[in-house]
Specification:
The chain is mostly helical. The protein is built from five helices and no strands.
Length: about 180
């Protein structure tokens, strides 16, 4: 009988110690190992970075085109509008994934920075919608398009600055432009 009592007491002690240790282990994973476990995936950070810069490049190319073209070719206007919109939409998707991860892990600082970047991207999307209204006019007014593109450039530039801060906050290195590093 005493043996059983010792065995039950020992079992209860082991269970109590294990129950106390599990939350500590889980908590340390959440903080120290969370990045290694896929939290704040570098994929989403790098992909949103790439799409932002691609949107910036398309806006810049279209701006130069609008500065030199006497008349705006509707096919060029449509392609520029669609390309810019695609990159901004993909940026929003990646930021959304990052924001979800930050919220799950209760990282209020990251959620705040992501929300700021999302706001700038949303402003760029609104300018892109305005550009669509100009793009469907015949003839396309290059001055109006140029003005809208310049506003979009400002919003994208603010998003890029905020995104750099975001990557820094999360400890994610900015992606390199050297394609030979990909394997």
């Amino acid at each position: 009988m005493i043996r059983r009592l010792h065995f039950i007491t020992l079992g209860l002690c082991v269970a109590a110690v294990a129950a106390a240790a599990v939350p500590a282990v889980a908590q340390s994973w959440k903080n120290a190992g969370s990045k290694a476990a896929g939290y704040y995936s570098e994929y989403h950070g790098h992909s949103s970075h790439s799409h932002l810069y691609s949107a910036q490049n398309h806006v810049s190319h279209y701006s130069k085109y609008l500065s030199t073209a006497e008349t705006v070719d509707p096919s060029v206007a449509r392609m520029a509008h669609d390309s810019i919109g695609n990159h901004l939409a993909k940026t929003q998707q990646h930021l959304g994934q990052m924001k979800n991860q930050a919220a799950v892990h209760k990282n209020a600082d990251a959620v705040k920075v992501i929300s700021e970047v999302e706001g700038h991207v949303q402003n760029a999307r609104l300018h892109q919608a305005d550009l669509n209204k100009i793009t469907i006019q015949k003839p396309i007014e290059s001055k109006a398009a140029k003005s809208t593109v310049e506003k979009m450039q400002v919003s994208i530039e603010k998003a890029i600055q905020g995104h750099g801060k975001l990557l820094e906050t999360l400890g994610i290195e900015k992606p390199t432009t050297n394609n030979s590093e990909s394997k």
